[in-house]
Design brief:
The structure is a single chain. By secondary structure, this protein is α/β, with parallel strands linked by helices. 32% of the residues lie in helices and 17% in strands. The protein has 23 helices and 24 strands. Strand 2, helix 5 (132-148) and strand 3 form a beta-alpha-beta unit. The protein binds alpha-D-glucopyranose (GLC). Residues 48, 62, 109, 156, 235-236, 359 line the site of alpha-D-glucopyranose.
């Protein structure tokens, strides 16, 4: 929003009566704000969702149970997160924005970018990744696209909303360093890179304080540190105390609450709430309405808006599904080579799982049918047998009958429960009846392709043992069946990479012992070690690594080059060459990870700091470069309240996944050490473990011992006092250093 809108809003608010201001900061209806016709302020319509517009006319409801106007249902975020394709996310954003504007929506409530702390979270289908850099680079692309269409985007759910269990009351108890480095970084990257019109506070509490009334979160961090200048809106029904929320930095309570204006007026008149806070919130609502408020209906818009190109959006949804599909295993059975008839079995073959449940639910403009699409693709694929037999049920006998004589059997599996707002899963398994069907088809001796259609990850071990290929399609939207058919037949190829680790078993997941917490609180005991950060820290085997996925071709990585413009500055350029070493076109994602060799505080072994997706023809190569800056090297030092880069060695690793990093280089930064100065009050362990300090310590102890005619205490003896401050040790020895001597010692220790 431009400065002039903010200025106009402030002028309008300055002319309002107290009660009118208080009415502005709570919704007028379930989906809209109050208009101020006499001041030229239109209503502002806010509605879902992240992968499609859920515009309800007439009866509104919270979780999409009632129908909404038809709109394109794109693949959900756990799919598009696997695309690693920022251009695609922006393109989808533009389409979402065009459809939102057509439906009279001013703010689209998405993207959702909460970190996937545990695979059990029911809303993981709506979120991109376990990693904040991937989430924090995809989200701003989506925001930029939506806002290019003249519609506001709204990041959600801010913050640390990583489970559905007790979501409206549970306190996410998380240390500040973990909060900043893992749970806030994605939002920070999105706010600073794309200036979203809005941010939605989450239902949960954070360390005991509701997100909707958390001053540190909404004002100190979001506004003062990150410079956010948009609208802070609550989640629907997520404001326990409207007065406290205004004071903390919330601007708009949704949906409307008739009691709120009276409470706010009373609070201002009693002095419990500064009128400046109310003015700030009211101005934020007015600014958003002036900038984004839409005529209540496109037809009433004077010059009618151009109707979205629904067919083009449908094709975009298909392309998005292809970009997001992750080929987990393939012994060469894919792409189908036409070796005999194809059988397609499984109930989900006819009733695809293409989106999740709850507030993100979209009524699609159309929905592709897999048998139809597969027949179409087989017909379009020269040389492939067109004989397709379908048993669209989980009935084993019917499936075996359809499979009889088939060259390859495609079995469609997926989650028939879970993947919904309001509930978490208790396990990561596919339905028993589906696994039985798969095993029976395998036992009959057929070549098998298993297709997964799920939002949250599922354990794949029992699938892989009965299949020659496993293709993860996620919840792939209304055109997902066309995408699947094109991939199976080789008309297209799978181009996704995992944005979330698939563990071998649920009990391996880092959050396992701290989920879902109690009625009151959930402890983020695993701290920073979520997803691959956790599995790498314990060197645990995983079924499929973060960043991994196969293509219909192969790639080679060569010629790593890391340049430091100035070793005294935390910045580097990382370049390498990636080559398509196979005989088909394909996509790969070059991933750059960074790890500090000997960190001051514990840190993950390595963390994603950049990526680039490439599309290469057979034999073609591309030089890829990723720029690293201060924050890529930094950790958050809570004691000093700032992001710190220490001098020392860092390993840079480059490759196609977090567990396949063929190119490595170590660079040494000579940046000044900030904080952590050694003093006489530092523990002996610091003195003994820091080379310069150890040298200064031993020299001083020798000098003191010589003066006193005593032996120098040996290091092992000093180790016994390793948590004791050096000052205390000197006092115990009756030693006091004069000021000059202390200064000289400390200068040498901190050299
Ligand atoms: C829901 C969701 C949020 C959604 C809002 C409006 O409870 O948490 O994502 O945008 O309410 O439907």
């Amino acid at each position: 929003m431009t400065e002039s809108v903010h200025e106009a809003a402030a002028e309008i608010v300055a002319r309002l009566e107290l009660r009118d201001k208080a009415a502005l900061i709570t919704g007028a209806t379930f989906w809209s704000t109050h208009a101020l016709d006499e001041h030229g302020v239109p209503e502002l319509v806010l509605t879902d969702g992240p992968h499609g517009v859920r515009r309800q006319r007439g009866s509104a409801d919270h979780l999409g149970i009632h129908d909404s106007l038809p709109a394109t249902c794109f693949p959900t975020a756990s799919a598009t997160g696997s695309s690693w394709n920022t251009e695609l996310l922006e393109e989808i954003g533009r389409a979402l924005g065009a459809e939102a504007r057509w439906h009279g929506v001013g703010v689209l409530l998405g993207p959702g970018l909460n970190i996937k702390r545990t695979p059990l979270c029911g809303r993981n289908f709506e979120y991109y990744s376990e990693d904040p850099v991937l989430s924090g680079d995809l989200a701003p692309a989506a925001v930029t696209g939506v806002q290019a269409a003249g519609v506001g985007a709204c990041l959600k759910h801010f913050a640390a909303n990583n489970q559905e269990t007790n979501r409206m009351v549970v306190s996410s108890d998380v240390d500040e360093r973990t909060l900043r480095e893992l749970y806030l970084t994605g939002f920070e990257r999105a706010v600073t890179a794309s200036a979203p019109a809005a941010v939605m506070s989450s239902y949960n509490r954070i360390n005991g304080v509701h997100a909707a009334q958390h001053p540190w979160l909404l004002t100190e961090v979001l506004r003062e540190e990150w410079g956010f200048a948009g609208l802070v809106v609550s989640d629907w029904g997520g404001v326990p105390d409207a007065v406290a929320s205004l004071a903390a930095g919330l601007d708009l309570e949704m949906p409307g609450n008739a009691g709120t204006p009276g409470l706010v007026v009373a609070a201002v008149e009693s002095g419990r709430l500064a009128v400046e806070e109310l003015d700030r919130a009211a101005a934020a609502v007015v600014a958003a309405a002036l900038a984004l408020g839409a005529p209540s209906d496109a037809a009433a818009a004077g010059a009618p808006l151009a109707e979205p190109d629904w067919d083009a959006h449908h094709e975009l949804a298909r392309r998005a599904a292809v970009e997001s599909a992750v080929l987990l295993t393939n012994d060469g059975v894919l792409p189908l080579a036409g070796s005999g008839p194809i059988a397609l079995v499984g109930a989900l073959a006819a009733e695809p799982r293409y989106q999740g449940g709850g507030s993100s639910r979209v009524v699609p403009t159309r929905l592709d049918d897999l048998p139809t699409e597969l027949a179409r693709a087989l017909a379009d694929r020269p040389g492939v047998v067109r004989d397709l037999r379908v048993s669209a049920s989980d009935d084993v006998d019917a499936a075996l009958a359809a499979a009889d004589g088939a060259g390859v059997v495609v079995v469609v599996l997926g989650l028939t429960e879970g993947d919904t707002e309001g509930a978490d899963r208790t396990h990561l398994d596919l339905p028993v009846e589906q696994l039985s069907l798969l095993a029976a088809v395998r036992k009959a001796g057929h070549r098998v392709v298993a297709v997964l259609t799920n939002g949250g990850i599922v354990l794949t071990g029992q699938v892989e043992q009965h299949a020659d290929a496993v293709l993860e399609m996620w919840l792939s939207g209304q055109a997902g069946s066309a995408a699947l058919a094109d991939i199976l037949t080789g008309l297209d190829d799978p181009r996704g990479r995992l944005a979330e680790t698939i563990p071998v078993r649920l009990t391996d997941t880092p959050a396992y012992l701290n989920f879902p917490g109690t009625e009151d609180a959930v402890l983020y005991g695993e701290r920073l070690y979520v997803g691959y950060r956790g599995y790498d820290a314990t060197d645990r085997d995983v079924a499929h690594a973060f960043g991994s996925g196969l293509a219909y071709t192969t790639f080679g990585y060569t010629d790593l080059e890391v340049t430091l413009p100035d070793p005294g500055t935390a910045a580097a350029t990382v370049s390498c060459t990636v080559t398509n070493t196979g005989d088909r076109a394909g996509s790969d994602v070059v991933q750059v990870y960074l790890g500090e060799v000997a960190p001051r505080l514990d840190r993950p072994v390595r963390e994603l700091v950049g990526f680039a997706k490439v599309r290469l023809q057979p034999g073609a190569s591309q030089r890829v470069s990723v720029e690293l800056g201060h924050r890529d090297f930094a950790f958050y030092d809570v004691a000093q309240g700032q992001w710190i880069v220490d001098p020392g060695a860092f390993e840079i690793a480059v490759g196609p996944s977090s567990r396949d990093l063929p190119l490595r280089a170590t660079v040494t930064l000579e940046v000044p050490r900030i904080g952590g100065e050694i003093t006489l009050d530092s523990p002996m362990s610091t003195w003994l473990d820091t080379p310069a300090a150890f040298e200064a310590l031993m020299a001083e102890l020798h000098a003191l011992a010589k003066q006193a005619g005593m032996d120098v205490p040996d290091v092992e003896l000093l180790r016994l006092a390793d948590s004791m401050p050096f000052r205390k040790l000197l006092e115990m020895g009756g030693v006091t250093l004069d000021a000059d001597r202390e200064t000289d010692l400390l200068n040498r220790a901190n050299a």
